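User: Second chain of the day. Same drill as before.
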Amino acid sequence: MDTKKIGGFLKTLRREMGLTQEQLAEILLVSGRTVSRWETGTNMPDLSILIQMAEFYAVDVKEILDGERKSENMDKEWKETLSKVADYNKLEREKANQAGNAVFGLTFVVCAAMIVIQLLMTGDVAVIAGETVVLLVGGVAYIGVMTYNGIWESGSGFKSAPFTDVLIAVVCAGAFAIALAICYIRLGAATSKAVHSALIFFAGITIVNFGVLRILAYFSYKRKDKNRNLY
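Assistant: Same format as last time:
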């Protein structure tokens, strides 16, 4: 297989469509640098992307692999085989995403539990607040990247819905609010004042958590909808 020849053919096909590397990269949801590597023969597209490119350029996959146009159509059975292989590769990537998200989720829960325990043991609200912000920012950043790449729901198995988002927001905020109330009481605050502060904290964090989850769900939906409309 002549990757340089294939790259030159991909470059020709792109120019025939009047697209820049950046425009094609946006359509295929990859980086412009990735497209450049394909066209120089440094790297080859994944099979799933290869089939998408063949459909987009209205050529056969075999023509791309040969690096030149052919008059005959690709054998139907060969195309079906490639599609099955592409589906298999996609399934393998989803399994890898799920494994990575499981590790991240476990780490996030353990860190959150340790913060609550530390709050109950030390009562140092300032330190815990900083640790909590770092944990939340890290979690939102990770989920945001997954959402941007369109693999948040497929990689996590999590299906976002208003009811589930509310439930998650309430449970997470409730755990920290209870710990905060206990901490205030241990520091000598009146029970009524501690409960009042904890309720304010609970309401604020619940709203913030729910808002973040809904925003992520919206972007995830828009990303998936864009993928469906490309072809």
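The chain has a mean pLDDT of 75.

User: Great, on to the next one.
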